[in-house]
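Encode chain A's predicted structure.
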Amino acid sequence: MKHVDFWFEFGSTYSYLSAMRLDAVAGAHGVATTWKPFLLGPIFKSFGWETSPFEIYKQKGAYMWRDMERRAAKYGLPFQRLDKASGQIFPQNGVAAARLALAGLKSTWGKDFCRAVYHAEFAEGRDISGQELLFALARAAGADQNEIDAAFSDETKAALRAQTERAISLGLFGAPSFVAGDELFWGDDRLEDAVIFAKEMDPAAP
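Encoded structure for chain A:
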């Protein structure tokens, strides 16, 4: 079956939009998806950035929040901007969420967990760095305690590092990113392009 790799970061606003609609779009075209959480922090540091470019470049950040409002309304998704004046943090620390996602994506609850984390963060404005919230979301998605514990094992920590290194080797520089065959698509507004490319890709292509 044709498929798209979906590379996402829990601190990424636009990844929220993609996570909430990817499987419906891909399914309508007969395309499977593989979800791949990774960390943007090491990539940004390689560029000399200590945080998101939306924080470094204030005009870019102001545009992003307004654009998110427009795009979320377009897709019928709830959205709440993270208001630093109210003590909310952006970008949020998604390391623990990414480790849990890796564990969940080995099982049946991973995608539901990822969507629940994004909803909590960008629809409800909640802090996703805390384990209490993440554990509750994982259990609601179907995780058992052994799977939650495994998410914080040395093996899972190493797997997340390896996945981030793989993202770097593929030339990823932001999230969301989509990979179909050897082709890279960046940004929520390229989701449909990636799915169509995967659908139409030559079966003999790598």
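The mean pLDDT is 95.
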